[in-house]
Design a protein that fits this description.
Largest sheet: 3 strands, antiparallel
Number of helices: 11
Strand content: 5-15%
CATH topology: Lysozyme
Helix content: 55-70%
CATH class: Mainly Alpha
Oligomer: single chain
Shape: elongated
Distance between the termini: 13 Å
Structural class: mainly alpha
Number of strands: 3
Strand order of the largest sheet: 1-2-3
Radius of gyration: 17 Å
Length: 185
C-alpha cells in the first residue's frame, strides 16, 4: 500500500476517501499537469520543435490563435518572441486548454466515466500533453483503457516514443497504472 501512496504523491494525486466533485477532480488534474509541464513565460521550442509557452501550450496548433484572442493576448507578438506573457495570462491560457481537455476526453476514451479518479486524471493529463490528434493514434492504449486493462495500457505507453521523450511524466503515469492494476486484482 505504501508503494501506491508514493506513486500517487509522485503524480501529485491522492485517491479520494469520499466522492469527488468535478471541481476537486479538476484541481488534481491542474496540479498534476502544471507540475509536469512547468511554466515558461517566454515562447520556446519544445522537445518536438514546436513553439510553446505557459504551461506547455502549443502555439502552433490551430486553436491557439483563438485561445489567445479570447484571453486578450497578442498571439503573433508572443509567437515571434517580441513579448512574454504574464503569469495571469499563462493561467488564462491554461484554463482554456483545460476546457478543451474536458470537452474532448470522452471522444477519445469512450469508457472515461467508468474509470477511477486516478485513471481519469491520467487520461486528462495524456490528452493535455499529446493533444487529441496524437492521443487518438495510441489506438492500442485507448483500447486497453476502454477494456480497463491498466497493465496493457502501461505496456502500450511504455512501447512508445512519447514514453522516451517525456521522462518523469511517463514513468510516473506507467508506474501508477501498474500499481493500480496490481492493487485492483
Amino acid at each position: 500500500m505504501w508503494v501506491v501512496r508514493v506513486l500517487l504523491l509522485t503524480l501529485c494525486i491522492t485517491l479520494p476517501l469520499s466522492p469527488v466533485t468535478g471541481e476537486e477532480d479538476m484541481s488534481r488534474v491542474i496540479i498534476n499537469t502544471k507540475k509536469f509541464e512547468g511554466l515558461k513565460l517566454r515562447a520556446y521550442k519544445d522537445t518536438m520543435g514546436r513553439i510553446t509557452v505557459g504551461y506547455g501550450h502549443n502555439m502552433e496548433r490551430a486553436l491557439s490563435k483563438r485561445i489567445f484572442l479570447k484571453a486578450g493576448i497578442p498571439w503573433r507578438d508572443v509567437f515571434e518572441g517580441r513579448r512574454s506573457i504574464m503569469i495571469k495570462e499563462a493561467e488564462k491560457i491554461f484554463q482554456y486548454d483545460m476546457a478543451v481537455v474536458e470537452s474532448e476526453i470522452r471522444d477519445v476514451v469512450s469508457s472515461f466515466d467508468q474509470h477511477p479518479q486516478l485513471v481519469q486524471t491520467i487520461l486528462k493529463d495524456l490528452l493535455y500533453n499529446l493533444g487529441k490528434t496524437k492521443l487518438l493514434k495510441f489506438e492500442k492504449t485507448i483500447a486497453a483503457f476502454n477494456a480497463h486493462d491498466y497493465n496493457k495500457a502501461a505496456d502500450e505507453l511504455t512501447d512508445s516514443l512519447w514514453y522516451r521523450q517525456v521522462g518523469l511524466r511517463s514513468r510516473s503515469i506507467v508506474g501508477a497504472l501498474r500499481e493500480l492494476a496490481t492493487s485492483s486484482r
